TrEMBL record:
It comes from the Eukaryota. PANTHER family: ENDOTHELIAL PROTEIN C RECEPTOR. This is EPCR protein. One of its GO terms (molecular function) is signaling receptor activity. One of its GO terms (cellular component) is extracellular space. One of its GO terms (biological process) is negative regulation of coagulation. The chain crosses the membrane at residues 185-206. Keywords: Glycoprotein, Membrane, Transmembrane, Transmembrane helix.
């Protein structure tokens, strides 16, 4: 029991994308303090915890579906320009932790084909390469991600402020009204992740180390 009191509250997201022969497959989930909160399967995202009222959630679902369709169309276009005869698997793992003493820790890690690829250094909003080989590909992806506020300052804000704020509200347990007021932030974080994934699609242009 003492150990559980010292454990941090945690919000995590896992987003996976597999690209093969011009087709994209999506799946993933989000959890809030160990409870499954959202689930992504293909083009369908569902809200497992009742964090948003039905009308607001319906709009969020449509936004996610629209983005994923757009992402898939881009992959098909890129594949026509530079066909890939092998599968690329991209995984984004991010979240934050709130400790009992009030301190927080945020993280964002990206793997490509099961190997550490990029890490987002939250304090100074910079991307760092982790790829052990194919340096041109990692350098290209890092450069592209550093170009846009959505993938630097906005992502930093999501992780340091929005994500931690969700956990603070969870810790305070201020009732249903608080849960409703923070629900758009939860979905905002999810949509922010999809936006980041959209920028990262540039790595698929770098087949064979040609960027």
């Amino acid at each position: 029991c003492l150990a559980s009191l010292a454990a941090p509250l945690t919000f995590t997201m896992l987003q996976r994308t597999r690209v093969s022969k011009g087709s994209s497959i999506f799946w993933g989930n989000a959890s809030l303090d160990g409870r499954l909160s959202h689930l992504l399967e293909g083009l369908n995202v569902t809200q497992v915890l009742p964090l948003e009222p039905p009308d607001a959630w319906a709009k969020r679902q449509q936004d996610v579906t629209t983005y994923l369709l757009y992402f898939g169309q881009l992959v098909k276009l890129f594949n026509k320009e530079r066909p890939m005869n092998y599968t690329q698997s991209l995984c984004c793992h991010l979240g934050c932790q709130l400790f009992p003493n009030g301190t927080a820790h945020s993280f964002y890690e990206v793997t490509l084909n099961g190997t550490a690829f990029l890490t987002f250094h939250v304090p100074n909003a910079t991307w760092e390469r982790r790829w052990p080989g194919r340096d041109a590909v990692a350098a290209f992806a890092e450069s592209e991600l550093m170009k846009y506020p959505k993938t630097t300052q906005d992502l930093q804000h999501f992780l340091n402020t929005t994500c931690v704020g969700i956990l603070q509200a969870q810790s305070a347990r201020t009732g249903k009204q608080s849960s409703r007021s923070h629900a758009p932030l939860v979905l905002g974080l999810i949509l922010g992740t999809f936006a980041l994934l959209g920028m990262a699609v540039g790595i698929f242009l770098c087949t064979g180390g040609r960027c």
